[in-house]
Amino acid sequence: MKNLFVTFEQALELKELGFNEECLGLYHSDGELVIKKTKSQEQYHGQICTAPLRQQALSFIRNKYHVEFAVAKIHNESNDYHFHIDYEWYFSESTYEETENACLNKLIELIKK
Questions:
Q1: By the 8 A CB rule, do 69 and 105 touch?
Q2: Partners of 73 in the beta sheet?
Q3: Residue 47, SS3?
Q4: Domain hosting residue 84, numbered range
Q5: How many domains does the chain have?
Q6: Up-side HSE of residue 22: CA atoms within 13 Å toward CB?
Q7: I need a labelling partner for 30 at 20 to 30 A (CA). Which of 2, 10, 86, 94 fits?
Q8: Do 21 and 49 form a contact (C-beta atoms < 8 A)?
Q9: What's the rounded Cα separation, in Å, for the pair 91 and 80?
Q10: What is the pLDDT of residues 85-107, one digit of tens each?
Q11: pLDDT digits (tens, 9 = 90+) for 32-54
């Protein structure tokens, strides 16, 4: 399940971009991901930022920054994926999840410019 969350670095960048939604996870200052099991915040002392699911982060970017993007399988017999951001294409020879993660990294990079 941990592979569904953004990385620690991405979570810090998203926080800087204004992400402040409720999340199922959080990161401690050492980068450790903790998946919340209760609503008691006492056991989560030392958190540095929330840890959104990758889909939650992408939705935040789509809604706040009005960027068009998508991840898709390349139409051939290989298992290659690509993504586009505002009609510019980026290719990847990775899994869907890795390509989605690369898309999120590129979105953060472009928004910060």
A1: no
A2: 81
A3: strand
A4: 2-112
A5: 1
A6: 3
A7: 94
A8: no
A9: 8
A10: 998 988 876 788 899 999 999 99
A11: 998 887 555 555 556 678 999 99
